[in-house]
Amino acid sequence: MKKKSIQSMTAEKILSSEDFQRCIGFHGHICPGLAIGFQAARVLMRWIGVERSPDEELVATVETDACGADAIQVMTGCTFGKGNFIFKNHGKHAFSLSDRKQGKTVRVCLRPDALPNHSQHLSLFEKVRNEQATAEEIKLFKQLREERLQNILDAEPESLFTIEEISADIPPQARITESEVCERCGEPTMINHLQKVEAQNVCIPCARRLFESKPR
Ligand SMILES: [Zn+2]
Ligand SMILES: [Zn+2]
Asked: Strand order of the sheet with strand 85-87?
């Protein structure tokens, strides 16, 4: 798979761009993780050859619940509430984008050597979080964090990730939204989330409670 690389943008340019500002607005703060997600989204959209998804023709999959996932939602237009944003809890800076029309999926994963000073940054982060860092260490941590952000945004986006086209099961677009009342708690529940337990149609938490209360 060959593609012309993304036109490089300096960190300064990205920081003042409307796209990145929208990511910060949605996420609530600026951080290196958000920048990783931003760059990942640029690569994915470039390789798939699409613009932002107004409806459901794109599907994004994130393998982390860290900051970067928010930039993916803003940039691709795939959101949790639209059902075209899938979370797999793998703890990796890995993101995929599928286009239903083309039946094509591209996955990117942050390279292990993408960012310098990673171990130092991590050990300091641990100290800062546990409130064991000295004033000096806090200062150094902030400096490293700032450097990381700059490095990510200044990098050629494609140099940060391994990029591959993968075959993925793209989930169907149609979702059943009709609801029926759970026969135990009385709460309206999507019918495809109801299950039959002891001749009653019950929701997932009620089914769990029923199983747990059974003598073993
Ligand atoms: Zn963040
Ligand atoms: Zn229920």
From this structure: 85-87, 58-62, 94-99, 104-110, 161-166
Q: Ligand 1 mean position to 129 CA, how many Å?
A: 14
Separation of 185 CA from ligand 2 center, angstroms?
A: 4
The string of pLDDT tens digits covering residues 69-126 is: 999 999 999 999 888 999 999 999 999 999 998 999 999 999 998 887 677 888 888 8
β-pairing, 104-110 with 85-87? unpaired
Ligand nearest to the CA of 200: 2
Asked whether residue 216 is assigned to any structural domain, the reply reads: no
Assess contact for 75 and 85: CB atoms under 8 A: no
> Which numbered ligand comes closest to the C-alpha of 181?
2
pLDDT given for residue 185 in this prediction: 97
Mark whether 43 and 73 lie in a shared domain: yes
The pair phi, psi for residue 95, each rounded to 5°, is -140, 140
Give the number of domains in the chain. Answer: 3
47-84 pLDDT, tens per residue? 999 877 666 789 999 999 999 999 999 999 999 988 89
SS3 104: strand
Same domain, 135 and 35: no
